């Protein structure tokens, strides 16, 4: 317990802040004005204590130093009680409460210190001015001065009286405060004890807190581990959920399949039952049949023997058939030979429209199927002899076809030559005649199945006959080429961009070949017709005026046929040339140089054709095949090993009369020629003939 000296300059240190107490008093004196209103409002006891303390301090100054701590204890207890009551009402905790008490105490001490300080500076009334020494003779002045002194003393007396009263009151308060201080000391002791109890309890609590902290750390670690295992488990759970979904789908699918299989099983069970029943029936039947079968087996043995005999007979019949076929081929050829190796048909075309109907028609009369007489309807008088001119001609051919003849009728005889080509002969079919006389119509034909010309009909017949011959062991390969000769130049109609040299060369006994020409293997009639159309289109593409061009060039379709009969080691190679010749009109009617050259070339080739045929007719040693590309190309078809058919086409108009007569004369000349034919037959032992 420190004591506050009344007048010493030492400043006791504060227990709360550690600073000298004087400083606190000064600082708090400044803050006292700002003391919380609640504190002053709530604490009437404190105010009372303050007043008492002021008095007791004054007393202390008078009676000596008094321990201030007792006074503070008294005050703090009173303060504390008030604050506790208030806080109970407000629900404020103990720590806050402690702070409130501390603050209140500090402020109250500050306030008292200020009050004490103010009482230490007691001043009396202002002293009367000391005037200059009043002379002794100035009674009036001296009286006035004394009067002033008296008044001053009176006032001082009055002040002192007041002070005395105040000090008495302070003394009374001091006693009360002393009692309160005693009470506060007792309270402090009990608080101290409580505090010690509390600190002991606090220690225990601390230990418990440490234990709990350790437990908490352990629990946190456990929690972390549990969290990790929870996340692992969550992942596993996700995976398992996904797997579960897949398996669920599988289960659904399998269930469906199971249902289907169950249905199937039910069906199959039913079927099985039915089959078992029918099996039983069949077993019964089998037993019945088994008995019968024994007999049948016996009959089978005899039947097998019969079959064997039939097979031997069939083999013999096959041989006979081949023999008969060979004989048929021989006889067919004899017939063809008898008909002539060069056959000439004449076909007169009809007028096809009204303008042609209005043209003057020749008078044509037909004798049987072979002869015709053609004449102009009006005879003219010869300017030289003055006699009527004979404008008529009588001609005989292998066949004459009047205007109403159908394509089928014309093809009848050609069909026999197609058989010759399949039998291994070279066949050549020409369409001869002036422009517009019906050559292309005869060879290609028109629209519709009935209007098909010789070429498409030949194609169809070849493949039909091959089909029949296949059944008797023959196999055939077919190839085709398409070319045109224009102004003595050869063009490949299956490849118009073919810039390689197309040259004819002729091997003795092996026929004529064109170098670099496209020779297309053909599998069917349809395919061959497709190539025929391509060639026709290519011929049209190359020409600026197709109709004119077509009448100024020779178009040659060649079909190569090779038949093999392996049993007999026999190969037959034949060919068919189908030639649509250029128009045969004479050079007189040509109008320009270009056309003149064309006509000359055409006439040269046609004349050479006539010369070749004449040479063959006269059995000349030299046959002028090489004089034109056409005859050179067709050499193998015009010689001994060939069959030739020439169809001379005639337009029925009088204006065409002279050209018609020329054509008929040419054809008649050809008709006279006969060739000695020889079939291209060989066995595998010999080298195959090249086309
Ligand atoms: N027998 C026929 N029956 C019906 N029409 C025919 C007959 N012959 C020819 N024609 C028709 O006469 C016209 C001329 O015939 P085509 O073109 O065949 O003559 P071409 O001699 O080939 O002429 P080019 O030398 O110019 O080619 C064509 O319209 C053709 O359809």
TrEMBL record:
Gene Ontology cellular-component terms listed: microtubule
Protein localization: Cytoplasm, Cytoskeleton
Main location: cytoplasm
UniProt cross-references to InterPro entries, sorted A to Z: Kinesin-like_fam, Kinesin_motor_CS, Kinesin_motor_dom, Kinesin_motor_dom_sf, P-loop_NTPase
UniProt-listed Pfam families: Kinesin (PF00225)
An example Gene Ontology molecular-function term: microtubule motor activity
Keyword match Nucleotide-binding: yes
Record-listed ATP binding positions: 433-440
SUPFAM superfamilies: P-loop containing nucleoside triphosphate hydrolases (SSF52540), Prefoldin (SSF46579)
Feature: compositional bias, Polar residues: 106-122
Span of domain Kinesin motor: 341-673
Chain residue ranges for the region called Disordered: 1-20, 106-133
Family per record: Belongs to the TRAFAC class myosin-kinesin ATPase superfamily. Kinesin family. KIN-14 subfamily.
The protein's name: Kinesin-like protein
Annotated organism of origin: Rhynchophorus ferrugineus
């Amino acid at each position: 317990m420190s004591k506050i000296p009344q007048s010493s300059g030492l400043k006791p240190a504060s227990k709360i802040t550690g600073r000298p107490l004087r400083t606190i008093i000064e600082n708090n004196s400044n803050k006292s004005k700002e003391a919380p209103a609640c504190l002053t409002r709530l604490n009437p006891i404190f105010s009372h204590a303050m007043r008492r303390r002021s008095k007791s301090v004054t007393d202390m100054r008078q009676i000596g130093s008094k321990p201030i701590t007792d006074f503070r204890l008294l005050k703090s207890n009173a303060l504390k009680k008030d604050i506790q009551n208030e806080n109970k009402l407000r629900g404020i905790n103990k720590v806050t409460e402690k702070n409130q008490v501390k603050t209140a105490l500090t402020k109250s001490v500050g306030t008292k210190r200020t009050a004490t300080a103010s009482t230490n500076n007691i001043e009396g009334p202002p002293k009367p001015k000391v005037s200059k020494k009043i002379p002794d003779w100035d009674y009036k002045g001296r009286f006035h001065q004394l009067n002033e002194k008296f008044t001053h003393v009176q006032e001082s007396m009055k002040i002192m009286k007041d002070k005395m009263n105040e000090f008495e009151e302070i003394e009374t308060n001091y006693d009360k405060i002393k009692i309160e201080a005693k009470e506060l000391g007792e309270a402090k002791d009990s608080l101290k004890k409580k505090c010690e109890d509390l600190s002991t309890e606090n220690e225990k609590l601390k230990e418990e807190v440490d234990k709990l902290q350790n437990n908490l750390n352990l629990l946190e670690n456990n929690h972390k581990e549990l969290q990790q295992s929870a996340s692992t488990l969550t992942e596993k759970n996700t995976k398992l959920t996904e797997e579960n979904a897949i398996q669920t789908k599988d289960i659904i699918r399998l269930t469906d399949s199971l249902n289907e299989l169950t249905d199937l099983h039910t069906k199959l069970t039913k079927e099985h039952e039915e089959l078992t029943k029918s099996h039983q029936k069949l077993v019964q039947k089998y037993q019945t049949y088994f008995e019968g079968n024994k007999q049948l087996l016996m009959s089978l043995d005899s039947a097998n023997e019969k079959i064997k005999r039939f097979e031997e007979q069939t083999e013999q019949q096959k041989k006979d058939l081949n023999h008969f076929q060979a004989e048929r081929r021989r006889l067919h050829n004899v017939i063809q030979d008898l008909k002539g190796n060069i056959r000439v048909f004449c076909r007169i075309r009809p007028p096809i429209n009204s303008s042609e109907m209005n043209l003057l028609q020749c008078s044509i009369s037909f004798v049987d199927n072979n002869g015709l007489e053609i004449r102009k309807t009006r005879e003219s008088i010869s300017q030289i002899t003055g006699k009527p001119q004979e404008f008529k001609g009588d001609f005989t051919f292998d066949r004459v076809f009047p205007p109403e003849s159908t394509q089928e009728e014309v093809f009848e005889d050609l069909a026999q030559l197609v058989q010759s080509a399949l039998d291994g002969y070279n066949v050549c079919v020409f369409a001869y005649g002036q422009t517009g006389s019906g050559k292309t119509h005869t060879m290609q034909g028109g629209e519709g199945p009935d209007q098909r010309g010789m070429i498409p009909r030949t194609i169809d017949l070849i493949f039909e006959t091959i089909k029949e011959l296949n059944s008797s062991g023959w196999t055939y390969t077919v190839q085709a080429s398409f070319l045109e000769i224009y102004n003595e130049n050869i063009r490949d109609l299956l490849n118009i961009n073919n810039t390689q040299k197309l040259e004819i060369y002729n091997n003795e006994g092996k026929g004529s070949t064109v170098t670099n020409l496209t020779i297309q293997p053909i599998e069917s009639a349809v395919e061959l017709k497709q190539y025929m159309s391509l060639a026709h289109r290519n011929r049209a593409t190359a020409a600026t005026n197709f109709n004119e061009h077509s009448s100024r060039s020779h178009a040659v379709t060649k079909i190569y046929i090779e038949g093999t009969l392996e049993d007999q080691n026999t190969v037959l190679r034949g060919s068919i040339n189908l030639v649509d010749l250029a128009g045969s009109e004479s050079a007189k009617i040509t109008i320009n140089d270009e056309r003149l050259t064309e006509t000359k070339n055409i006439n040269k080739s046609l004349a050479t054709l006539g010369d070749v045929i004449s040479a063959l007719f006269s059995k000349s040693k030299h046959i002028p095949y090489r004089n034109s590309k056409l005859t050179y190309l067709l050499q193998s078809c015009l010689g001994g090993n060939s069959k030739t058919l020439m169809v001379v086409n005639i337009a029925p108009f009088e204006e065409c009369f002279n050209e018609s007569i020329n054509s008929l004369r040419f054809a008649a000349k050809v008709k006279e020629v006969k060739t000695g034919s020889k079939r291209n037959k060989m066995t595998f032992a010999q080298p195959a003939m090249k086309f």
